[in-house]
Amino acid sequence: MKTEPLSSRRLRRKPFVSVWWWVTGIVLSSLFLIPLVTMLLSTFKSRTELGMKPPTLLPRELTLDNWQRLFDPSAGLIQSTMNSAIVSLGTVALTVVVSALAGYGFGRFRFRGSGVLFFVVLAGLMVPFTVLLTPLLVVLRGMGLSNNLFGVMLVYTVYQLPFCIFIMRNAFSGIPNEIEEAALMDGCTRVGVFRRIFIPLVIPGIVTSAIFAFLNSWNEFLAALVLLTDQEKFTLPIMLAVRQVGKFGTVDWGLLDTGIVVSMIPCLLIFFLLQRYYVSGIFSGAAK
Amino acid sequence: MSVDAVPIRRSRRRRSDSWIGVASISPAILLITVLFVVPLVLMLWMSLNNWSFLGKPTFIGLENYVRAFTTDTTFVNSIVFTLVYTVIITPILFVGGLALALFVKRPGKASGLFRTIFFTPYVVGFAAASFLWLWFVNDSVGPISAATSAFGIDLDQTSWLVEKWPGLVVVITMVTWKVIGFQMILLLSGLQGVPEELLEAAAIDGAGWFRRLFSVILPLMKPTVIMVLVFSISGSLLAFEQFFLITTGRPNNETITAVYWIYNVSFTKFELGYGAALSVVMLVLLLVVTAIQLKFLKGRSDED
Amino acid sequence: MLRINRTRLSSSVALGIAAVSVLGLSACATEESASGPVELTVWSRSDGELYLTALAEEYNKTHEDIQVKPVIIPNHDYQSKLGNAIGSGDAPDVAALDDVLAPYFASKGAFVDITDRVGELPYSDDLNEAQQSQGVVDGKTYTVPFTSDNSVMFYNKNLFAQAGLDPEKAPETWQEFADAANAIGKLGPDYTGYHFSAGCGGCTVFTFAPLVWAAGGDILASGENESNPPATFDDPIVAEAVELLNGMYLNGGLTTQSQVDDGSNYGGSFESGQLGIVFSGSFYLTQLGTTPPDFDFGVAPIPGKTAGDIASFAGGDVLGIPEGSGHVDEAWEFLTWATGDEAQTALAEQGITPVRTDLLESVYSSKGPQFAALSEAAMNGKVPYSIQELALFNDANGPLVGLMQNGVFGDDVPAAIDAAQKTADGIVANAG
């Protein structure tokens, strides 16, 4: 009886189990990828073909029309991509710093009102955003930050904070006290402990916050539209919406698909670059 | 986050150090005060007014709130529908996300690849993903009908976007496809913190797979579980675009969510004051739900 | 002098003052223009992107002291963006606006009163009447028409021939219209007779209202409470029109494809040659012009019950000068130019119907029979005047869309009419 689990553990590494693991993985992956592949194929279909009944699976004739229209220099795509990049990267930087600090505060210290304050922070996750935008615009205007990319960046940061502070609080509070105490005893300053000991330990949390903040600010539409009024300051989702949705809400499916593909690229890149931090043993080693 | 499972009860630092904690949360609190609390107070004020989008507001006290629960049956129905949606989608995302996390937990390049694939749909924006699925399920020009007819199957898709439950299934499928990879990532980092030795010890003690999951893994990653659930449930209770774009409320506005109705009231009927009141109602509802979750899930084992 | 009516504005930004006092910061006043040309920001929904950009270029070439800067806002969110901007004081100098929204915005004091200025235009009597009256509240004028977009019938002549119909003779009555659609629907599962976006209120009112008007009915009561009139879904002609479409649905001329279309597939499969009839506007003619389909199509007016009765929905944009614009005189200068011969001719060249009835014949109808049909529609155009137009008709969750869903695609027209009427009455009462 006692040997059974051991042998089953050994079994897990045997080819038979591995085959099922692969099969499951491939089936699941197809489910996730089929919609994306269909979309990618559609970017090479003409407008007429996309309206055809019954629809075609593979493009009947390859056309780059959608790509050309999207990258038409007069379309302002480059400018809006730059704007989006500035706002998103700025949001990521600000969010990571502010939420790491706050996570440290909430996770490592106990002070009067910390529970209530944390709940106020979480409340940011729970308010319908559409109506709040109107007063938000008024506040930003009062600060002289309406129609300003930095203003948008601040707004984005504030609405990523609830989730990111939650993550960071969890990360910091999970660090055993002994580590901190030992370091302090070794003569580390508190800042030193924070920078040299804690930060490496909470890397997975920082990575999650960064990815989350980037994706949300990269794809956000409504706040950017309400808060920005100059065409040159518009972000990518606004420009895409202008191009993709025409009279009466007619969707230009080819441009829609192409736009999605284009906006996915930086997100995937970021994820790809950062995901290794999730599984690197960096922290299980250090925490021991 | 991944360390949250380390099974050591921490005694928090002495009170004399608490100023450091206060100082380090102050940037966050400052930002949140200016750009969340202040607008929120203004929204509260709006909710007490008959505030058309443009023109002069008139103070009407709690009239908007009374209206929300008396004459506006659509709002009450939309809350019920939102709750139904949340109750269905939350376990799907959580259980599915956890299963995927366990699946891709094992080290190696292939795991990394699958992880990336499962995560990929999450990078598509919500509006874009909704449009995409609207097109997928279109029974005359969408790829699903293309695929089925290519195999000679005559699939009747007419009800998918017309009736309530089929429409809900379409939305749930879309949301699952899009969001589950993110929940997987969150849960995965929680899982990483569960020490392998503990699992082996449990296995040696004869604990089966389920037993290990429920008595070792989940309790050890409790902070992550709480966070994922709070995040997921709040997100579902605020669902909007997926219904606004896919079901558009069909049939008979039965698939309207609360935020969808708030948007409609504010920007189609231009009743911004009323929209603000409905937003406040939703905020209160979400805060209550979250408070219950925190209390319920945290139990006694964790402080505050 | 640039006089800005600040009193009305200030009440609408009470919120702003509250915020400012909380923050202890002062809002920026409207900035004084430095020397050099005045920059005039002009907002338009994305529909207007092509022609507005072209017009702005043209204008900027000939005007040294005023330079127009177009800003294009996504269609869906135009009214929330404009409303938020005017309400908070970030208004543009000129706003192009869907004419159905003009009564609401004008009645709420969003635009500068331009009654006298419009009256002095040499062509003030030649502006498209339906669109012109959209900007009039209590006898005062706040907007001028800019572009016309009238609904007409587009039909595929090849499919007409295939279905045994005369391709050179467009349907002239409701009955002929229904018969033609049903015949084409019978060509096979890949063919549709008639398509309209029944999940999209704006699309539905654009295509359905003309059927009612052409038969002598109406969707709004006339004569009472002019800015917020009751809807008349209970008009017997409305019921008959719903029955007509319902009959087409039952006979295969109309499919559930129309029921679920929220506008995203507005033209259906017309461009791929698989749709017989669609009601659309001048923009569609332009679109079909840029990528010519491989079949012949005709353009004809939307018919009533008897031959010769026609009607059209007068869509398109109007121009207004938002309260808070720092450059009212310069903005008016642009409005004059935009409605003048040069700009309207340039628009006509792009396929947009001019708003000047005195120019229709010379610069538009002369382009061909399809354009002549659009001109004829423009002369017979009508548009619902109500501050509640969006909630009554355009709202995808409103009574008109409900009537389509349950009446046209359901089985109980009278019940659907009753329900729509009841919802509409509630909307009208609420705004009162």
CATH third-tier fold name of chain B: MetI-like fold
**CATH architecture heading of chain B:** Orthogonal Bundle
CATH architecture of the largest domain in chain C: 3-Layer(aba) Sandwich
How many runs of DSSP E, i.e. beta strands of chain B?
Answer: 2
Q: Which spans of chain B have pLDDT < 50 for at least 5 consecutive residues?
A: 1-11, 300-304
**Unreliable residue stretches of chain C:** 1-33
From the alpha carbons, calculate the radius of gyration of chain C and give it in angstroms: 22 Å
| Overall residue-averaged pLDDT value of chain C | 89
Fourth CATH level, the homologous superfamily of chain B: MetI-like
Number of domains of chain B: 1
Domain unit count of chain C: 2
Structure summary, number of beta strands of chain C:
13
Global structural class of chain C: alpha/beta
Give the CATH H-level superfamily of the largest domain in chain C: Periplasmic binding protein-like II
Helix count, DSSP H or I runs of 4 or more residues of chain B: 13
Strand content of chain B: under 5%
Sheet with most strands: strand arrangement of chain B: 1-2
What helical percentage do the residues of chain B reach?
55-70%
What is the CATH topology classification name of the largest domain in chain C? D-Maltodextrin-Binding Protein, domain 2
Tally of contiguous helical segments of chain C: 20
Highest-level CATH class of the largest domain in chain C: Alpha Beta
Search tags:
heterotrimer; A: 288 residues; mainly alpha; MetI-like fold; 2 domains; 75% helix; disordered N terminus; C: 432 residues; alpha/beta; D-Maltodextrin-Binding Protein, domain 2; 7-stranded mixed beta sheet; 4-stranded mixed beta sheet; 20 helices; 45% helix; 16% strand
Structural overview:
The complex is a heterotrimer of chains A (288), B (304) and C (432). In chain A, 75% of the residues lie in helices and 0% in strands. Chain A is built from 16 helices and no strands. In chain B, a hairpin with a 7-residue loop joins strand 1 (49-50) and strand 2. The two termini of chain B are 17 Å apart. By secondary structure, chain B is mainly alpha-helical. Chain B has one domain: MetI-like fold (Orthogonal Bundle), CATH 1.10.3720.10. With 432 residues, chain C is α/β, with parallel strands linked by helices. Chain C folds into two domains: 33-149 and 315-382, Periplasmic binding protein-like II (D-Maltodextrin-Binding Protein, domain 2); 152-313 and 385-431, D-Maltodextrin-Binding Protein, domain 2, CATH 3.40.190.10. Chain C is built from 20 helices and 13 strands. In chain C, the strands form three sheets. In chain C, strands 1, 2, 3, 6, 11, 12 and 13 form a seven-stranded mixed sheet that branches. Chain C has a four-stranded mixed sheet with strand order 8-9-7-10. Chains in contact: A-B, A-C, B-C. At the A-C interface, helix 3, helix 7, helix 12 and helix 13 of A face helix 2, strand 2, helix 4 and helix 10 of C.
